[in-house]
Amino acid sequence: DSASLTNAMQGSDAIFHLAAIASVPLCEADPAWSDKVNLQASLEIISTADCPVIFASSAAIYGEPVEIPINENHPITPVGYYGQQKAAIDAKICSLGSQLTPASALRFFNVYGAGQDPSSQYSGVLSIFIERATTGGQLSIFGDGEQTRDFIHVSDVVQALLLVGSSLADDGVLSPAHASAFNICTGSPVTLNQVV
Tell me: the pLDDT tens digits for 122-165? Predict the structure, then answer.
């Protein structure tokens, strides 16, 4: 509820909004529930916050890439509920963030690093490959292995979050509109064959 949310955010220098149903299959299986958790709750946070909001968006907002590497001006054509929800929140931040409070959407690409559970249905391919390689398992690639991904280490994601949060909290400005979106990636996609 709004009162509890306002109370929880009171006195904050910045809000790092990373909570969501991150499982694409769960979002597809129950769109009403995922809309409530991912979309409505996020919009409530953005409209209630009285300090900068840094939102964990996703490369899923881009859908099938038209060009690689993907930059922030790439067309936004999400596929599925998860991508659509992230795109809606991202758009709200970019269009209304400056009217409410400074805000930024960080579009995470393929995040990997310690602590990722390779048995999770949301686990990235790198954690699965590492687990199988260290336990003598077989590395399986579906297709020809030429599909590309832009992998980013979790420590780089944390650094980006802190830099954007610090900038917004210090000056409230990252762009003239006080609302912005950034791709959090390397800009250098690799094929799965290159990874193996």
Answer: 668 888 888 888 999 998 888 999 988 999 999 999 999 999 98
Q: Is 62 a catalytic residue?
A: no
Show Cβ contacts of residue 30 under 8 Å, excluding neighbours closer than 6 positions: none
- Alpha-carbon distance of 148 to 139, in angstroms, equals 17
CA 1 and chain centroid, separation: 24
Distance of CA 118 to the CA centre of its chain: 19
Q: Which residues pair with 151 in a beta bridge?
A: 110
Going from N- to C-terminal start, the domains of the chain cover 2-112+151-188
CA 54 to chain centroid, in Å, comes to 10
Active-site annotation holder among 62, 82, 112, 122? 82
Beta-bridged to residue 55, according to DSSP, are 17, 105
- Asked if residue 151 lies in contact with residue 191, where contact means CB atoms within 8 angstroms, the answer is no
The amino acid that residue 118 corresponds to is: P
> Does domain 2-112+151-188 bear CATH number 1.10.3720.10?
no
C-alpha 196/C-alpha 186 separation (Å) is 19
